[in-house]
Design brief:
With about 300 residues, the chain is of the alpha+beta class. Helix content is about 45%, strand content about 20%. It is globular and about 70 Å long.
């Protein structure tokens, strides 16, 4: 369709993210459309109406829309100007696991996992979606970061739409022990090779846990996402090496897993309020102790 433009922003093991731009030449009802896979769609600008059977759903930036595979629908635009949306396609396993936390369903239909057509989002969820889109355009963003934020966004959407989380029931001690073991194994994996550019699926395979489950458990247990934990470790190592007199900042940044000298400098500046070169010029034992406390806070 000439009035539709798609831009794939990210394609990973369990999530694909696509920006969709629609500029129809008329406000009339479109022909029949359908998707091959279940999608979660975030309208960003403009307004359109999704027509499914006898039901109509108004889509604007406050809403999230759910599309099941092979679901026939039509679209109309009551306001001239079209719309811009972002589509998320998660793997069937991830969607089933996520939905299982909110609804007591023994088996989720992989083609029709979504029982709602739409839902109202919190402003915090809308902001997380936009922050993720902005990071997709940053070459310093890692696959691990994008995947974790995408899974957190999925969790936020289901929380907004399906209400309170049902997982707050008491957990058995052996379950808690298993979760702690997963968390500690992730810490060990990162500590062994902090410069590694792991993806979330790779980490999950290494510790024998699903990506969705692992991402949530690590954040709940440690108080930080996995990619943030890895970044803090890299910065802590950078402090130590700078204090020991490391000269080549580009070499240091690349050795620690940063994508470039500018990426390393920006992350360091954001964390500590000064550049690596400035830190090296003013290094004292007192300053090192002070900056190390920032990472532990």
């Amino acid at each position: 369709m000439a009035h539709l433009q798609s831009n794939v922003r990210y394609r990973g093991y369990f999530v694909s993210i696509t920006d969709v731009r629609c500029r129809p030449s008329t406000c009339r009802l479109s022909g029949e459309e359908q998707t091959d896979t279940p999608e979660i769609v975030f309208p960003r600008t403009g307004v359109f109406v999704k027509h499914t059977g006898g039901h109509q759903t108004l889509a604007d930036a406050n809403q999230v829309l759910f599309f099941n595979a092979n679901e026939v629908y039509r679209v109309s635009h009551p306001i001239i100007g079209g719309d811009d949306c972002t589509s998320f396609v998660f793997s069937a396993d991830v969607v089933a696991e996520a939905i299982g936390l909110y609804r007591r369903i023994i088996r989720v239909d992989p083609q029709r996992p979504y029982c709602r057509s739409h839902g109202l989002l919190r402003l915090q969820t809308i902001a997380r979606h936009q922050r993720l889109r902005r990071r997709l355009g940053d070459p310093s963003a890692t696959a691990l970061e994008i995947e974790e934020v995408a899974l957190q966004l999925l969790n936020d959407v289901l929380t907004d739409v399906d209400g309170e989380h049902t997982e707050c029931r008491r957990q058995r001690s052996d379950t808690l022990q298993m979760q702690r073991r997963w968390t500690e194994n992730v810490k060990l994996l990162i500590a062994e090779c902090p410069e590694a550019k792991y993806s979330l699926p790779e980490i999950a395979r290494r510790v024998h846990c699903s990506p969705f489950h692992l991402s949530r458990i690590f954040r709940a247990t440690v108080g930080s996402s996995i990619h943030q934990y890895q970044l803090r470790l890299r910065l802590a190592l950078a402090l130590d090496r700078l204090a020991d007199g490391a000269e080549d900042l580009t070499e240091l940044g690349l050795a620690l897993g940063f994508s470039s000298h500018s990426h390393f400098t920006a992350a360091f500046q954001l964390a500590f309020g000064l550049s690596p070169s400035r830190f090296r010029e003013t290094t004292t034992p007192r300053r090192i102790r002070k900056l190390s406390k920032i990472l532990k806070a």
